[in-house]
Structures are given as C-alpha cells and as structure tokens.
Amino acid sequence: MQRKAIVIGATGLVGQHLVKQLSELYDTLIVIARRPPRYINASMRFYQINDFDNLSEVFASVGADRTTDAFSCLGTTKKQAGSDEAFRKVDRDYNVNFAKLCRDKGVENFFLLSSMNADIDSRFLYNRVKAETEQAVMALEFGQLVVFRPSLLLGKHKGRPLESIGQKAFKLISPLVSESLSLHPISAKRVASAMAMSAHDIYHRSKYRTEPQIKRTDIIENKQMLAMTRVKK
C-alpha cells in the first residue's frame, strides 16, 4: 500500500523539519502552504494557497483518503496575527477546518502540534486557544489522534523577540539543566522527529493488527519528546 501524508504549517519552525523527515517515510507527501517549503523532493506535491479561508477548494484536489496521515504544524502569535480574533482564526479555526476536511475524506491518523501550557481555563489567550483547538479536533474522533505539547521551541523565530531572548538565556545555562525537567526547551527538529517517529510507529503497529482499531488520543508531553529523541552519546 502506498503511504501518503498531508501537511499544513510546513514552512514554520517545526514544519520545515517535519517535511524533510516525512519525505523519507512516505511515498507521497502533500504540502499545502502559502509558499514552497525549503526542502523539496520528488515525492512532494505542493499546493499553493493564498488564503486558508479557501482551504476547502484546494483540499478538494489533493486526493487525501484513508491511506493518508495528516499533520498540522500551523500556528502564529497574537503579534503576528494582529488581533485576538485573527490569532484564533489561524491557530484554532484553520487547524480545526483542516482536521474536518481530513476526517471527511476518511483520514484516520491525525498529528497535531500544540503547546505545553494548553489549558481551557488559562488566563492567557494563547494557552486557551491551543486547548480549544485540541478539544475541537478530539471531537472529530480520528482513529488515532496524537497531540504534541512542546515547551519553548529552539530555533530561529521570525517576529518573536521574547522567544529569541529566552533561547539566548537558555544557551548560557543549558549545560546545567537536565532534560528530565518537563520545562526543558526543545529544538524544533526534535519535535518534528517525535511527530515522524509516532507516525512510523503507528503505521508498523497497524500492519500487525488483527482486531478493529480502537479510537484513541495520545498526548505527547515535552518530557516524553525529549526522551524519544535523545541521542545516546
């Protein structure tokens, strides 16, 4: 069976690493984005979209089905979006709409990039919206939903000065900080690796499944991602 994956958020901090890793696992990699990802190979099919409000029109021609795994790394900040409403539109509405379109096409496995502090009762908009997105995607009842909740992402952020300052400060103390701490920052590449590893594991388990798949949701916390992607010295 030919394996397919579909990705949104492919040009972001995690997404740009994810597409490169998924291209080594899947026969066909479908990317929907405003601009081409940095990494492109022969297995990739790129669909340009100027406005994610028109996602359903683009999605109709991508050929997603039950053999397709879906990945979302789409996200922004309030500062980049310009307002609370615009932030919700990108981080929640676009992600949930993508998930619904995937589910309607029979997609069974969905991998969602969220945040460590996702909390529906948080006083912070960012954390509340992440939790709202998680809950809305969970309600779609994918065969397998995996939610990834990283801590501070290490990598080059455009337009995120506070995170850049946090990264610089962390580099100074990182030799003294154990990865066993749940708040330990994590590189975008390692988050992408955790997402790819999870999909690969689910695929191999499905090959040997003899009973019907039980719908389930897995939450992969930051500490678990650090452990999954630790390189032994």
Q: Quick gist of this model?
A:
The chain has 233 residues and is of the alpha/beta class. It has helices spanning 15-22, 55-59, 78-81, 84-104, 125-138, 161-173, 188-207, 222-228, and strands spanning 4-8, 28-33, 44-48, 68-72, 109-113, 144-149, 153-154, 186-187, 216-221. The strands form two sheets. Strands 3-2-1-4-5-6-9 form a seven-stranded parallel β-sheet, with helices on both faces. A two-stranded parallel ribbon has the order 7-8.
Task: Please explain how this structure is put together.
By secondary structure, this protein is an alpha/beta fold. The protein contains eight helices and nine strands. It has helices at 15-22, 55-59, 78-81, 84-104, 125-138, 161-173, 188-207, 222-228; strands at residues 4-8, 28-33, 44-48, 68-72, 109-113, 144-149, 153-154, 186-187, 216-221. The strands form two sheets. The chain has a seven-stranded parallel beta sheet, sandwiched between helices. A two-stranded parallel sheet has the order 7-8. Strand 7, helix 6 and strand 8 form a beta-alpha-beta unit. Helix 1 packs parallel to helix 7. The relative contact order is 0.14.
Task: Pick out its properties.
233 residues; alpha/beta; seven-stranded parallel sheet; two-stranded parallel sheet; globular
Uncertain segments are none
- Give the overall pLDDT as a whole number: 88
H/E order of the elements?
EHEEHEHHEHEEHEHEH
Helix count from the secondary structure assignment: 8
Largest sheet: 7 strands, parallel
Backbone shape = globular
Number of strands: 9
SS class? alpha/beta
End-to-end separation = 37 Å
Give the % helix: 25-40%
As a percent range, the share of strand residues is: 15-25%
Rg, please?
Answer: 17 Å
